[in-house]
Design goal:
This is NAD-dependent epimerase/dehydratase domain-containing protein. With 411 residues, this protein is α/β, with parallel strands linked by helices. It has a domain of 256 residues: Rossmann fold. It contains 16 helices and 12 strands. Helix 2 runs parallel beside helix 3 and helix 6 packs antiparallel against helix 7. The chain is globular and about 55 Å long. Bound molecules: NADP nicotinamide-adenine-dinucleotide phosphate. NADP nicotinamide-adenine-dinucleotide phosphate binds next to helix 1 and strand 8. The site of NADP nicotinamide-adenine-dinucleotide phosphate (NAP) has 25 residues, from helix 1 and strand 8.
Length: 411
């Protein structure tokens, strides 16, 4: 593809799980991609030898930055990929990454669930950070559409009695309920609602075409060598005899003498991932699944490939209904969900398919077998989108493979 025909997309948070899959798909489709990370470290240093428009700033880097960014070098083999430093907390930080882009995919988001001040660190940070990136898009003057990756946390966290509820894009999570009752990850849901409202207002005032996508639990393989969110969350259902052995391996990697050694010996991405020590059978992660289902009435899942396909589909759609966003509040909102299920059903599937991982289905005794509430992607499907992964088993099998590759699960 010639440089003239090639479209350019910015993807924020390139070391993240979903962003890494999106970057790969965009490059495979012939896009030029600009991505941002907070600490480019070694990636920036290496790219700056070969690329002209990349920041020439070298920042002190940490071993976890090297590990988190390592896939970006590999993705460069697929097409033009530039890495920029940007922080949502800094005004104007995204200006260079967004300049000249046709589309901006705002995927990065604060995810520090353990903050002692979640209103500041999650809610304010998400709203202000999104507006920072949107201001950069407005300044660029080339961005045809902004696609925000939100979450079903902006849709489904509301008190609903009984069962049989089907949530669509008219549904909003209840901020007052969340701030009063403070269920698990309440501030994350509040952040998603408020950032969307702020982004819609900004888009309306600045004539920006905005689409907001609401993925549910996103699973399956991605290029990211580290997965910190949904992947270890669902894999916490699985455990295994080799668990201790895997932990010992990670500890050894952690004790590697120096960062230089780490880079020189070209430790594989899989080993680098282990530095983060996310393992299966994680009690903390596992304990979140139960209350989460109690609030949302389901555990809903989508394959990461389908999410990325949906985001690109919505970006490219010429007559997206988002142009009417100012008039119709729900016009630019799209839920991305291919399967609504329960934690008990997930555990039963895993137990049957992977007996070696000692899934404790009995810890979910008494929990509903079927979802009480479902998230519907009818609107996305009506627009012409087709999900590739509609079978729970296919999504979970790919997740298990990815978990093994990352070292989260023993082989
Ligand atoms: N995974 C899911 O199941 C799921 C479901 C629904 C919605 N989502 C949404 O999808 C998006 C990506 O999620 P993910 O699962 O891929 O998470 P992830 O792997 O943790 O990625 C989050 C990214 O955001 C970046 N980030 C955080 N704070 C930042 C800041 N202040 N400035 C710049 N970048 C910042 C992180 O960079 P650092 O590495 O520097 O921290 C990281 O690259 C999020 O908006 C999330 O809410 C995810």
């Amino acid at each position: 593809m010639s440089a003239v025909e090639r479209k350019t997309a910015c993807v924020t948070g390139g070391n993240g799980y979903i962003a890494s899959a999106l970057i790969k798909m965009l490059l495979e489709k012939g896009y030029a991609v600009n991505t941002t990370v907070r600490n480019p470290g070694e990636v920036l240093l290496l790219l700056s030898y070969s690329q002209v428009r990349v920041f020439a700033v070298f920042l002190p880097f940490r071993s976890d930055d090297i590990a988190k960014n390592s896939h970006l070098k590999d993705l460069q083999a697929l097409g033009p990929l530039k890495v920029f430093r940007a922080d949502m907390d800094e005004e104007g930080s995204f200006d260079d990454a967004v300049a000249g882009c046709d589309y901006a995919f705002l995927v990065a988001a604060p995810m520090n669930f353990n903050s002692e001040n979640p209103e500041k660190d999650l809610v304010e940070a998400a709203v202000n950070g999104t507006l920072n990136a949107m201001r950069s898009c407005a300044k660029a003057g080339t961005v045809k559409r902004v696609i925000i990756t939100s979450s079903d946390a902006a849709i489904s966290r509301r008190p609903l009695q009984g069962d049989g509820h089907v949530l669509d894009e008219d549904s909003w999570s209840d901020v007052d309920y969340l701030r009063t009752e403070k269920p698990p990850a309440w501030s994350y849901s509040v952040s998603k609602v408020l950032l969307e409202k702020a982004a819609c207002k900004f888009a309306e005032e600045n004539n920006i075409d905005l689409v907001t996508v609401f993925p549910v639990f996103t699973l399956g393989a991605a290029p990211a060598p580290v997965a910190r969110t949904s992947v270890p969350g669902i894999l916490s259902l699985l455990s295994g005899e080799k668990h201790q052995q895997a932990a010992a391996t990670a500890n050894q990697i952690n004790k590697l003498p120096s960062l230089k050694t780490l880079a020189k010996t070209r430790v594989t991405q899989l080993n680098l991932a282990a530095v983060f020590i996310y393992f299966s059978g994680d009690e903390t992660q596992l304990e979140v699944l139960k209350p989460l289902q109690s609030i949302t009435g389901s555990v809903s899942i989508v394959h990461v490939e389908d999410l990325c396909r949906a985001e690109i589909f919505l970006a490219e759609k010429e007559s997206s209904s988002s142009s009417a966003a100012a008039a119709a509040a729900a016009a630019g909102r799209y839920i991305c969900c291919s399967f609504n299920t329960t934690v008990l059903a997930l555990a039963r599937y895993m137990a049957g398919r992977y007996p070696q991982y000692n899934v404790q289905t009995d810890r979910f005794d008494g929990m509903p077998e079927k979802p009480r509430v479902s998230c519907s992607s009818e609107k996305l499907i009506r627009e012409g989108f087709e999900f590739k992964y509609t079978n729970m088993g296919d999504i979970l099998d790919d997740l298990v493979e990815y978990g093994r590759a990352l070292g989260i699960l023993p082989h």
